[in-house]
Amino acid sequence: MRLLIWLLRCIVFVLLFGLAIKNSGPVELRVYFDAAWQAPLSLVMLGCFAVGAAIGVTAAFATLVRQRREIAELKRRLSEANASGYSPR
Description:
Blueprint: H1 2-22, E1 26-30, E2 36-40, H2 41-83
């Protein structure tokens, strides 16, 4: 199974690398105040992917922190209930 996963990873890498090589032509990004930036298309695509991944990780991190806080509160309540002799059964 591990061999199959590594084979799939290698195939995806080769395909994406070929895509990057074929799309190495420059593109012009126009931003605010008539500023422009020229970069290879593959670099622009990589940058957009990195920014999207960073936004996704940030959103997931916020949810993770909230869930950990809730779990800690529930554990505290359970501990207090067990200390007072309460049994849910």
